[in-house]
Amino acid sequence: MKPKEDNLEQNISRLVKLAGDADKPSSEFVDSVMDGALDELKTPGTGAKKEKSGKTTKSKWVKGFAYAASILILVITLTLPSLKRACERKARPLMARKMAPLEYQVSNSKEVSGLNTSPQPPKRKAHFVGTPMSTNKPMALKDAKEEHKVALRVGRPEAGLIVARKLEPGKRNYPPMAHGGTTPPNGEDVDAMFFKNYGVNPFVDTEDDHLSTFATDVDTGSYTVVRRYLHDGHLPPEKAVRVEEFVNYFNYHYAAPQEDDFAVYAEAAPWSFGTGRKNSYLLRLGLKGKQVSEEYRKPAILTFVIDVSGSMRRENRLGLVKRSLRMLVERLREEDRIGIAVYGSRGRKVMDHRGLYEKGEVLGVIESLQAQGSTYAEEGIRIGYEMAEDAYKRGYINRVILCSDGVANVGRTGADDILEVIRKKAEKGITLSAIGFGMGNYNDVLLERLGDKGNGHYVYIDTIAEARRVFEDNLTGTLQVIGRDVKVQVDFNPEVVRSYRLIGYENRDVPDEKFRDDKYDGGEIGAGHSVTALYELKLWPDREGTVATTYVRYKHADTSAVTEFKSPVAVEDFNRSLDSSSSEFKLAATVAEFAEILRKSYWAKGATLDRVLERAQQLSREFEGDGDVIELVDLISKAERLMRDVEDDIFEIEEPVDVGDDEDEFLRP
Amino acid sequence: MADQSNKQDWAWISAGDADMWREFLSREIPRLYGMFMRRWPNPALAEELVQKTVFDAVRGRSSYEPTKGSGEEWIFGIARNNIRLEIRKRASRPSVDGDISGYMETIDNEPLPDEVLEQKETAAIVKAALAGLASKEQAALRAKYIEGLSARDIGRRLGVTEKAVHSLLYRARISLRRELERMAPADKKG
Q: What is the domain range of residue B168?
C-alpha cells in the first residue's frame, strides 16, 4: 500500500482529469509520451518481447528515461561498495534487535543483490533473496518438528523503474529489485519478514501408523498474506503458505447442525495431482460448528490492545486498524463493552471499559490514536490482559483483540513469557484474537502463535474488504467460540488404505496418544465456523468397506464438558471421478493444489498452475457471483503469470530426493 | 487506414528513425487516446493505455513486419491487444460498484477502481466539487492534472513560487476531497 498522500494524490489526479476535455489528450501529455518514446528509441529494441505487466508506470519513465538511467547507474555503480556496507551495517543490528526477544535465527545467506548495471530495460525475472530456494520436500516424521526459522532479507521492489530511483541521504537505500520473486510488496524500507517453515507432511504407510491426529485451525491469515503478495505482483515465499489456511478461507456450505455442536462431512474422489503418483484419492473432511444468530450472541467484553509503534505508520497500517475497529464498534450492541490499551515505547491504558451506548466517545478515542516510538508489545499485552481481567464477567465473551504488525522489539523477557501469560489467561476464559496488519516487517509467526496460545484465532487484514468479512459478515463466529481444544483423529483402515498424507496442518500436529489428553491444547472453533482437512490417499486395489473413521473431541465452550463423537466413511461413498464431485469438493481440491504449488511442496512436483487455473475458471461459473471464487481465479492467474516468469529458475533446482521410477521409494521418506 | 498520400516505406519503424517516429506518434497518440476513451471514458486509464501502447511499440519495433500491414495497423493492433488485456484483467476481478460514495472512506489509502471513474455521475460530481473550490485551488488542480503542467510552470502562470504551488496543490487536494465528501457522502453500511 502506498503512503496516504500518494494514494490520495493519485486518486485526485485521476478524478480531476474527468473534468477536462474528454476528446483529446493534453498537449503536455502528448509531448511527454513522445519524449519518453524517443528516448526509448535510443536503446536497442527488444524484438517481439511483450510487456507482461498490465500496468505501466505513469509518466515517470517518459522524461529522460535513458539519460537518467545511465547517469544514475553510474552513480549507483560508483557508490555500490559503500552502499552495500551501509545496508549491512544498518540492517543487521536492526534485525537482531527485533528478533532478540523472539530468539529467531537469521539466515542472511545472500548478499543484497539485484543490481542492474546496464541501461537496458530490466528483464522481468524473479529475484530470490534470503535462503536459497529449494523444493519444499516432505520430512521424515521424526524431523517434522524441526524448525526452520527464516528471516527474509529484502529490498524495495520497483518494476521498470529500477534505475531511476534516487538515493536519498539518511535513508536506508537498498538496491532495487527486479520484478516478481519473493520480495515483499510494500513501498517502504523493509527490514525483515518472519515466516516459518513447518515442512510438508509425508505419506505415511497405514500399516506403520493408522492414526492421524491434529488440532483444528480456523485461521485464514496465510491466504490473505499471500493475496497481498500476489496483488502487488510478487510470488510469496513458500513459508508464507499454509495450505490449511488457504483451504479454510473458503465457504464449502456445510449445513450447520441443528442440535449438536458439530457435524462432520466427508467426500472423496480420485485425484491426480503432480507426477509419479497413480491411483490417488482426495478425501475431504469438513467439520461445521453450530450457528448462533446475532441476537443470541453472548454480550462481549472486548479489550483492544493496539500497536501504535512507529512501524504502524507504514502503509498507513494504523489507519486500516482504525477503520476496521470503527466497523467493529458500529456492529456491536449496547450491552457490549470495550476497553483500549496501546503500546509504543511503553504500554498504557487509553480507555477503561465502557458500554457501547457511549459509542461516540469510543470512536473518538480510536480516532485519536497516533503511531510513534518503538514496540513494547509485552507491556501493552500485559496491560490489556490486566484490564480484561478487571472487566471479566462470567457468561460474557471475554476477548483481547491484538492489532499489530507483530513486530516486538522492546521487552525484557521475550515471546515465551508473553505466550505463557496468554496461555494462563486463556484457561481463565479470556481469549485472544490476533489480527495482523501491514506487510513490510510483518511477523506472521508471532501472531499465529499468539492466537493459538490464546485459544483464539489469527487473521490477517489487508484491506477494508477483509475487515468487513471478519468484523461484519462473520462477527458472531469471530467472537463466540463454541468448542475449545478441538482435536481430530482420523483412524485409517489398513485393510483398505495403503498410505495417506495430511495436506497442510503441519504446525498443528498432535501426538496420537494425546488425542484423549484433555489438557493437551487443540483448536478453537467459533459459531458457524467450519474446518476442512484434506488427505491424499492410496488405496489397496479392489477393497471395500470403511476407509476411515473420524473422531472429533472437544470441550464445550461454556461448560468445559468434554464430548467425543465419530463418523465413518466407506469406499462405497467415494465419487467415481473428480468431475462428478460436488462443486465445493472441487473448490477445496483446487485451492489445495494452488497452495501446494505455491509452497513448492514436494508432492506438487510436475503440477502446473495453468491446469489449476482452468479448473478454477470453470468453478467460478459454478459458483456464479461468489466473490471469493472470482478472486481466487484472479490470484491463480496472477501467480501463474509470475511463475511463468521464474520458471527457468525453479526447474534449475536440483532434485533433493531420488525418486526413480518406483513410487514406493518415496512413500517412506 | 494506411497513409495513402505517400506510399510509405515503413522500414524506418524498426530502424528507429527518430524524425519519422516523432511525426508518426504525434499523429497516432491522439487517435489512440480517442480509441481508448471510447472504450472506457476514463482519461487516466486512457493515458495509461496510450503510454503502454506507445512503449510496447517502441520496444517491440524490431518485430514489426512491413509486409503484414502499415505502421498504423500495427500500432492499433498493439492497442487492441492492450484493450484485450484490460478486459481480461477486469473479468478476473469481482465486479465493482461504480458509485463513488462507496469509496470515500478509502480514497486516502486505496486506488479508486476504474469503474468508479467511468461513471457519468462521477464526472458530474467532480465538476461540481471543483466548482466549489477557491479559484486559485481550482486553477492549480486543473493546470496540474488536466494540462499536466509542472509546478514551476503553474507558479509562473499564477505568479507564485514553486514551493507555494506545492502547498497550494496540497491544500487543493484536501479541499477537493472535502467537497467530494459533501457531494457524495460515504455510505455507511455498517
A: 115-183
What is the 3-class SS of A291-303, one letter each residue? Answer: CCCHHHCCCEEEE
Considering CB atoms only, which of B30, B142, B147 is closest to A24?
B30
| A26, B48 contact by CB (below 8 A) | no
Of residues A566 and A470, the one with the higher pLDDT is A566
What pLDDT, on a 0 to 100 scale, did the predictor assign at position A295?
A: 80
Asked whether residue A139 carries a pLDDT value surpassing 90, the answer given is no
User: Which among A182, A192, A234, A639 is positioned nearest to A445, based on CA atoms?
Assistant: A192
Q: Strand locations in A493-545, DSSP E?
A: 497-503, 523-526, 530-539
**What is the pTM (predicted TM-score) of this model?**
0.54
**Same-domain check for residues B28 and B76:** yes
Same domain (yes/no): B143, B176: yes
Q: How does pLDDT run across A99-119, given as a tens digit for each residue?
A: 333 222 333 333 333 333 333
- Contact at 8 Å (CB) between A645 and A126? yes
The arithmetic mean of pLDDT across residues A526-535, rounded, is: 92
CATH number at residue B76: 1.10.1740.10
Q: Let me know if A169 is exposed, middle or buried by CB neighbors in 10 A (0-12, 13-18, 19+).
A: exposed
User: Which residue of B116, B145, B147, B181 is the best one to mutate when testing the A interface, meaning the one whose CB has the most A CBs within 10 A?
Assistant: B145
Is B103 inside any structural domain? no
- Give chain B's domain count: 2
Enter the C-alpha cell of residue A462. 489487508
Q: What is the DSSP string of B29-89?
A: HHHHHHHHHHHS--HHHHHHHHHHHHHHHHHTGGG--GGG--HHHHHHHHHHHHHHHHHHH
Cβ contact B55–A40 (<8 Å): yes
Percent residues over pLDDT 90 in chain A: 29
Residues of chain B contacting residue A327, judged by C-beta atoms under 8 Å apart: 190
Give me the CATH number covering residue B136.
1.10.10.10
DSSP state of B161: -
The chain-wide mean pLDDT, for chain A, equals 73
Backbone angles phi, psi at A342, to 5 degrees: -130, 165
pLDDT one-digit tens code per residue, A563-588: 999 999 998 889 999 999 999 999 99
Domains of chain A plus CATH, in order, are 65-197 (no CATH), 204-292+482-666 (2.60.40.1230), 295-478 (3.40.50.410)
Domain identity same for B120 and B179: yes
Q: Supply A385's cell numbers.
A: 490482559
* pLDDT > 80? residue A138: no
Interface contact A49-B94, CB threshold 8 A: no
Contact check, Cβ <8 Å, A19/B126:
yes
Chain B residue numbers with beta carbons less than 8 Å from the beta carbon of A463 are 110
**Where does residue A303 fall: left (phi above 0), alpha (psi -120 to 50 degrees), or beta otherwise?**
beta
Mean pLDDT of A497-516: 91
Contact yes or no for B130/B141 (Cβ under 8 A): yes
| Partner-chain residue, chosen from B42, B56, B176, that has the shortest CB–CB distance to A51 | B56
Min mean pLDDT across A118-122, A211-215, B120-124, B167-171 is at: A118-122
User: Residue B3 carries which DSSP code?
Assistant: -
* pLDDT beyond 50 at A18: yes
Domain boundary among B32, B58, B91: B91
